[in-house]
Amino acid sequence: MVCPVCGFEEYEILKSKGKKNKELLVKCDECNHVYHETAPEEAYEIQVRVVISEFETSWKTNITLYSDEYLETGTLLYIDDKDVEVTSIENNEGNRVFECPVVDIQTIWAKSLDTLSRIGFSIDNSGNVISYKVELEREFPIAIGDVGEINGLKFRVYGIKTLERNMKKGFAYARVIKRVYGKLLSSKDKSKLKYDLSEYVVKVTSKEKNYN
Which of 25, 108, 131, 157 falls between 20 and 30 A from 66, CA-CA? Predict the structure, then answer.
């Protein structure tokens, strides 16, 4: 409750009447203004359905939230002994929204944060592209201009696609990266190697060729 005169939020209750919707007579602790207010309803528990994704798999569970809460995408929750991040919210009308009162939520969509980040790498050699899936620590940084290596292929990063945008400069952490684009370097290239990701490859999504 906010004082209509000074905007202060702390007050003293002078009188209270009613059982369900209590009518209060309160005095502002800042300016002593006395005014009438309706007491807010007590919050109650709500079971909300959650769909948690972990790479190619997902599962359904529930979380207990409270009726007076508000949820938005990006919020971190702890569910079934896992840290998860809210990626989308479906309201009672079946629409996907970025934020919503808990009382209007039908389903929460989230991703597990207890795993490595799985991102794609596409290495281009004059139109011939080889792609990998690589699992990295979530805080692993990748920058435009980095020189890396995967399975003997040395490349320079020229583009990064994150969850929100395409990058041609700067860097991003693996936790927000969807795909990294690199140009294959000649075996004669003397650029200093920044990282070798060969041991982190979990899947080759196109046929490897001898480009050296």
Answer: 25
In this structure, the answer to whether residues 130 and 195 fall within a common structural domain is yes
Alpha-carbon distance values, 57 to 8, 53, 82, 117 (Å): 49, 6, 15, 14
Q: Are residues 138 and 184 in the same domain?
A: yes
> Is 167 part of any domain?
yes
Q: How many domains does the chain have?
A: 3
Asked if residue 103 and residue 130 are part of one domain, the reply reads no
Question: Is residue 211 assigned to a domain?
Answer: no
* HSE-up (13 A, CA, CB side) for residue 102: 18
pTM: 0.58
CB 96 within 8 A of CB 90: yes
Q: Which domain holds residue 152?
A: 117-204
Contact 96, 155 (CB under 8 A): no
CA–CA distance, 117 with 62 (Å, rounded to integer): 24
The tokens describing 86, both together, are 């809210």
Residue 53 within any structural domain of the chain: yes
Instruction: Look at residue 73 and tell me if it is in a domain.
Output: yes
pLDDT digits (tens, 9 = 90+) for 63-112: 999 988 999 998 999 998 888 999 999 999 999 999 999 999 999 999 88
